[in-house]
Specification:
The protein has 122 residues and is mostly helical. The protein contains 4 helices and 2 strands. The protein has helices at residues 21-33, 37-53, 61-76, 86-98; strands spanning 102-104, 119-121. Strands 1-2 form a two-stranded parallel ribbon. Helix 1 (21-33) packs antiparallel against helix 2 (37-53) and helix 3 (61-76) crosses helix 4. The radius of gyration is 15 Å and the shape is globular.
């Protein structure tokens, strides 16, 4: 969602927005995955704006403990908790540890976590 933040209707977002350190890491990787200079520049600009706007939620010992709850919820829902979904689950873990809802453009990525973290589609 951080990628599209400026394009979202502000009335569907909370008054105060937080971003996980994991999301910031994904953003930081973005310019390196770009295939051309113009896209790389756009992505680097996005990283710099996000770094200026947010103090990221850390992935700390509380987050590490919360990951167990997130992992168990995903497995109980019959979904895989490893592989390509792992980064999304770490983002959900940061929200869980901070006791914050998770706002996302991809709610299906977080299916099965409703008892652990509130997932809000935007």
């Amino acid at each position: 969602m951080v990628i599209d933040l400026e394009q979202l209707d502000p009335t569907v977002l909370p008054v105060e927005v937080a971003v996980s350190a994991i999301s910031m890491a994904e953003l930081a990787a973005g310019p390196h995955a770009a295939h051309d200079a113009e896209e790389r520049a756009r992505r680097q600009d996005r990283v710099q704006r996000a770094e200026a706007a947010f103090e990221p939620l850390p992935f700390d010992s509380e987050s590490a403990r919360a990951y167990g709850r997130v992992y168990a919820a995903v497995i109980a829902a019959g979904r895989k908790a490893r592989g390509p979904r792992a980064v999304d689950l770490l983002i959900a873990t940061a929200a869980c540890a901070a006791e914050l809802p998770l706002y996302t453009r991809n709610p299906e990525d977080f299916h099965g976590l409703g008892d652990v973290v509130e997932v809000i589609a935007v």
